[in-house]
Every structure is written in structure tokens, then in C-alpha cells.
Amino acid sequence: MDVGFLVDTLSQLMRGVPLTLQLTATSVSLGFILALALALALETRRPSIVWPIRGYITAFRGTPLLVQIFLIYYGLGQFRPTIQALGLWGFFRAPFWCAILALTLNTAAYGTEIIRGGLQSVPYGQIEAARACGMSRSLAYRRVILPIALRQALPSYGNEIILMIKGTSLTSIITLLDITGIAQQIISQTYRAVEVFACAGAIYLAMNYLVAHLVAVLEHRLSPHLRAPGIETAVAIEGALH
Amino acid sequence: MFNLVGFGPDGWGPALLQAALMTLALSTAGFLSGVALGVLAAFARLSGDRFARGAAFAYGALFRGVPDLLTIYLLYFGGSVALTTIAGWFGARGFVGLPGFATGAVALGVISGAYQAEVYRGAFLAIHRGELEAARAYGMSGLTMLRRIVAPQTLRYAMPGLGNVWQLVLKDSALVSVIGLVELMRQAQIGAGSTREPFIFFCAAAVLYLSIAATTGALFRRVERHSHRGLRTA
């Protein structure tokens, strides 16, 4: 095995990490905001609001991400005159923004379902208690319902973030030089596909491991009420009782 | 514009439908090879052997953590390099590419096997321990117990998870287009390229994917209902 080549390849591939992270972070945060808004909109249960959102979720969860990326990047490019007239051509011409748009719409569709599940898992007693305290609807959402729902949705959302990190590799097909894109560039120069793709895979694996770990830590931090109290807390409570 | 994806004289309808069938065949082959790998990996995860447990864990972590696109590239190029080397021993010159369908099916099998292993493992652990004890008390041999008690119930608990994995395989099959197999995604690209009407072609592909997902999803739900017959539910 050629260790020098592997080290060299790894250091070149690392140059793609910022773009991969940028794509993931932007689309996951924008997607989260959209998903939260849509999940709350679904709570209204008004057919005129619910049906369009259901349609959007079905469409984006039922088709491959690659189709969505191509539809936005190549498909919309066909309507260049119209888009230019709207002054949006600068946005749709850039593969980066098309990738962000496709990834955001994709993750928001999955995210809406995850947050909806979280909202459904909030025990009704908690909502009742909030009402009994005289909280308004919005205050109850802000202080009681959303914190519980989002905490509940966190593990699934962690999986979704990992799926997005993996999904960003598709943007290399529309010429972005993320980790996979750089890997393809190196391969076209060296013809050593196996080593280069293995190195790229190792980087993704490390990133996903890190994200999974961070989510697990966050989950642990957000659920002290579900754990047995630590010895210091137990002693303190004991002391307070006597 | 709609004539392009219709069934008229210069319509791409038949080609797209045929490609959709290819997608369906590819996904089915991938899913079924995933069943074999997944069951094997789940067995290894649950076995007492430390080495087998570790290997199965590594397999799952690896292929669920690496982008599916990379797995497909890696298997295609890795397999082709191996094949080219072997062909070289027999005097062949130049690059020998792997057949697209087989490579795609194996790649989808390897990826979905990693997910299916988790589904089977969870389903097995959901079986009531008392059932296994009862089977043993009846004097059933390991194989009989597997056939009569373990396998049917594991499958019942695994159905919802398997439905999800199937949807994943169906969507992942679009990535096999990068190694040149003419399935739905690739056919849409070809049509878009030669007519310069990408929008309608990718929309048609999306609609076809959606309808495959919807019909097969209904099928999975039916099997799930069937597997729950005679079961009391809340």
C-alpha cells in the first residue's frame, strides 16, 4: 500500500470539507426553520393549509434527491427568460444555490414529519396544565409544547442530519467540488479510484461519527429529568428534607 | 411539450416506462440481496461470537455512515479494477467495466443490508422471551424453533422497518445511473439531453418514482396487515 499517496489524497480531500459542511449546515438550518413552520401549520388542521403541505411532503419524500437536484438545476434552467425577467437568474444559475435549495426542500419535507411526530408525543396533561396555569396558546407552545416536542424529535433529527451529510455528496454531480467532487477530480488525474474513494469514505465516516456523538451529548444534556439523580443531587435533596 | 413524454410517434413514453421497469427490477434485486446480507449480519450481531459481532457492527456502521453514492462508485471501480487485473492475466488489454445491473444490485444490497440488519435485530429482540422458552420446553430443535416461532414473528415485527428500507432502496436506485445503467434516472437524462427539455423529463421521472413508491408502499402495508391477522391490537 502506498501510504504517501493516501496521506496526500487525504490532505487534498480535506479541502472539500468546508464546502460539505457549509452545504449541510445551511440546508439543515434553513430546512429546520421551514419544517418547524410547516409542522406548526399542520397543527391548524385546516384542509386548505394541510393538503398543500401533505402534497409537498409526499412529493419530496417519494422521489430521489438526485431527481430533485436535477429538476432544480437543469429543469428550471430551461425557463431562463422567465427567471431572468424575475431577476432570479443569478440564484438559479449557480450550482451552489440550486444545491442548497434542493437539499433544503428535501430535508424540510422529512423534518416536518419528524417534528410532527414530536408534537404528537407531547402528553396531553402537559398542555392541560399549561392551560390551567392561564398560559395563552403561543406562550404554551413556547414554554411547554415546543421544548418537549423538539427534545422528543432530537434523535430522529440527528439521523436526518447524517442523511443530509451523505446527501451533499450528490451535489458533486452538478459540478460542486465538495469531498466527493474533489475525489472525482483526483481520480481523473491519477486513475486510482479505489484508494481515493476509500479516503473520501473515511472522511464522511468521521464526520458522521462526530455528528452522531454531538447529538447524543445534546440528548443527554436535555434529559436530566429522565435520569436517576446523581449522588450530589440526592444528598442535597436528602439534606433539604431534614 | 407533453407530447415528448407521451406515447405518440416522437414520444418518450415507452422508453420511460421500460426504464421504470428497469428501476423496479434493479430495486427488487438490490432489496433481495439486502435481505440475505441483512439476515446474516443480524445473526452475527446476535451471536455469542465476539468476532462475528464486531464484524457485523463494523459492516453496519460503515455502510450507514458512508454516502451511498461513494459506495456505488467504490464497488463499481473496485470491481472493475479487479476484473481488469484478472483479464490482464489472460492477456486482455484495456479497462474491463462491470455489468451495470449486477453491480448496481450488489451495491444496493450491501447498502440496504446494513439497514435491514438493524431492522431484523430489533424485530428479533421484540419477540417475547417466554415464546422462546415455551418452544424449548416443547423440545423443539433450534431449526424448528427458528422456522415456527422466530422467523414468522421476526418478520411480523420487521415489516414496517422493511417498508422504509424498500423506499430507501427505490430512491437509491437512481444513483446507479452514475455507472451507466439505463434505469429511470438515466433514461430521463438521455431524453432531457437529446430534446433540451430537461424540466418535463425530470418531472416525468419524479411522477414515475412517486407512483412506484405509492403502489409498492400499498403492497407492503397489505403484507403488514396480513402478518398481523389474528393479533389483538389496542
Structure description:
The complex is a heterodimer of chains A (242) and B (234). With 242 residues, chain A is mainly α. Chain A has a single domain, classed as MetI-like fold (Orthogonal Bundle). Chain A contains twelve helices and no strands. Chain A has helices spanning 3-13, 17-42, 47-62, 65-75, 80-85, 89-93, 95-120, 124-132, 137-167, 179-190, 193-221, 231-241. Chain A is flat and about 75 Å long. Chain B has one domain (2-227): MetI-like fold (Orthogonal Bundle). Chain B has helices spanning 13-46, 50-65, 68-89, 100-126, 129-137, 142-172, 184-195, 198-227. The chains are: A mainly alpha (242), B mainly alpha (234). The interface between A and B is large, with 39 and 38 residues.
What's this, in brief?
The complex is a heterodimer of chains A (242) and B (234). Chain A is mainly α and 242 residues long.
Q: Can you tag this structure with a few keywords?
A:
heterodimer, A: 242 residues, mainly alpha, MetI-like fold, 12 helices, B: 234 residues, 8 helices, flat
Determine the mean pLDDT of chain A.
90
Count of DSSP E strands of chain B? 0
Shape of chain A: flat
According to DSSP, the number of beta strands of chain A is 0
Terminal-residue CA separation of chain A: 69 Å
* Rg from Cα of chain A: 23 Å
Spell out the blueprint of helices and strands.
The complex is a heterodimer of chains A (242) and B (234).
Chain A: H1 3-13, H2 17-42, H3 47-62, H4 65-75, H5 80-85, H6 89-93, H7 95-120, H8 124-132, H9 137-167, H10 179-190, H11 193-221, H12 231-241
Helix pairs in contact in A: 1-11, 2-7, 3-7, 4-7, 7-9, 8-9, 9-11, 10-11
Chain B: H1 13-46, H2 50-65, H3 68-89, H4 100-126, H5 129-137, H6 142-172, H7 184-195, H8 198-227
